[in-house]
Amino acid sequence: MMTHMIRTISALCVLSSSWASPAIPAAVANKFGAKCLDGSPPTYDVSLNKTSSQWVLFLEGGGWCYGATVAAATADCAARGGAQWPPKSGDYDSPVVTAQVGSGSADIGGIMSSNPAINPDFYTWNKVFMHYCDGSSFGGGRADPIAVTRAGAPGDLWLRGRNNFDALVSYFSTTLGMDSATDIILSGGSAGGLAVFYNLDHFATLLPPSVRLVGFPDAGFFMDVKGETSGKYDYRANFQGADPVWNVTGSGGTNLKCLAANAGEKWKCLMAQYIAPHVETPMFVMNSDYDAWQMEHVLGAQCIPTPTSACTGDQNASLRSFRDQFAAAITAGVIDGKPKNGVFLDSCYVHEQNVDYCSNQGMPNCVGWSPLSPGSKKWGYTTAVSGRTPQQAFGAWWKGETVVAIDDHKFWDNPTCVYLGHTPQPIPGAACKPSGGCCDFSGIWYNFPTPSVQLHNFTQSNCSVTFPWSHCHGSMGNASGDTLAVTCPGFYGGKLKGILEPAKPYDLIKWSNGAAWYRASA
């Protein structure tokens, strides 16, 4: 039985709005054979700056249609494409709607943000958000459709991810002005991050040699490891079952040098750890070695520890082993012998980190790019490795620094991203009712307005306030009325005073040094 149940993560993060994103023209789609699963042309969102020759292209994520057998993968792809396989007669209502909709703007936060405070190095760049509608990480290349049933009638299912990629980037060059680009970052998150590994070197062949192209895959380094309970390589089976449906390896929809090196095991070229050693275009790989999606779906972890919920020794050992295998694979595939590459590998419980559009989920996803990002504020993360946030690390690498930031915190102890099992929730404010001559300062406190990940857990007996910190030996200070006088020398010299201000929606302590904390529930 799990000590702390893992939340199921919806990796399918699709922007929603009242109008559809623009699709590439039919003539362009037909030229490249570009089709979404349901046969419609691929779509995109764009934010243009006509004074800039620099571009960020972001490949949307959203999992895959796959399965451990060809039949399971085919049925999954059909459902994702709003259809059913095997075909049948009669009415059929699919729970999946394939048509992509968007905001009309590519500003999805993070590396795609137009806010200089959040994205100081790239906020003026042209940005294109490439919608994901093929289920194979922009890699599929199946020539003929699969017969399916859609809305009670015969229909076709198409697997054309690489065709979609080619059609989109061609259209951006011929119509949107990317033919004048001097710099391009190809980024993507989750399944879109894996798509960067598939397409980066291929994209380089479509551009003039004068263009500086780099890859920036986020949360796309999906590991090939044994499952925690089965002891088998369960996850790879999903790609092995799907490839005959997708036809990624058969059509050259992934890295060609990887395919040549793995002629007898081409399925390996569907997984980033085997592709990475063969990618020649410089790239900066961002991931968590405790990737929240992979904890559940790849490792099959039975427990996720929190400050209030411990795991067993064996469960902890399994988590540590996954982390160590992750760090070793990143080092071997991305860093060794590749001085132009960079890495940001943190030990946070998080999935995507370099955008914000999926931060509305019930687990840390699209969290961490900057402390100012909405997802970071939501979860109280100020993610940093070697003193740098993801935004700072990637910006420094882009400017020419060597950045290999691999988290020294090996097990859930990076203080910039403490996972509580829930978001820090402020408790409702209430009037201060002195008990024995003082207000109640007990509770868990966070920095205000941006939550710190350091917990300030006060307990109180009468008017004596204690703090579980070794430098204070338990004693924080004494309260009188609404004022807490700090006596612990290890806490700002023992000279601070804090005033408790009952407030709506939550209580505040305002400190004499100008800082403020808010009281949150446990």
Q: Using the 3D structure, state the CATH architecture of the largest domain.
A: 3-Layer(aba) Sandwich
Number of helices: 12
Please write the string of helix (H) and strand (E) elements.
Answer: HEEHEEEHEHEHHHHEHHEHHEEEEEEEEE
The CATH class of the largest domain, by name, is Alpha Beta
Determine the CATH topology of the largest domain: Rossmann fold
Overall outline? elongated
**Strand portion, in percent?**
15-25%
Strand order of the largest sheet: 11-12-13-14-15-16-17-18
- Specify the helix fraction band: 10-25%
**Which spans of ≥5 residues are poorly predicted at pLDDT below 50?**
1-19, 90-103
Mean pLDDT: 88
Notes on the protein architecture:
With about 525 residues, the protein is of the alpha/beta class. It is built from twelve helices and 18 strands. It has helices at about 25-30, 70-80, 160-175, 190-205, 235-245, 250, 255-260, 270-275, 290-295, 315-335, 375-380, 390-400, and strands spanning about 45, 55-60, 125-130, 145-150, 155, 185-190, 210-220, 285-290, 340-345, 405, 445, 455-460, 465, 475-480, 485, 495-500, 510, 515-520. Helix 2 (about 70-80) crosses helix 5. Mean pLDDT is about 90; it is low at about 1-20 and about 90-105. The chain starts with about 25 loop residues before the first helix and ends with a strand. The chain has an eight-stranded antiparallel beta barrel. The protein has two domains: about 25-80 and about 95-145 and about 160-405, Rossmann fold, CATH 3.40.50; about 445-520, no CATH class.
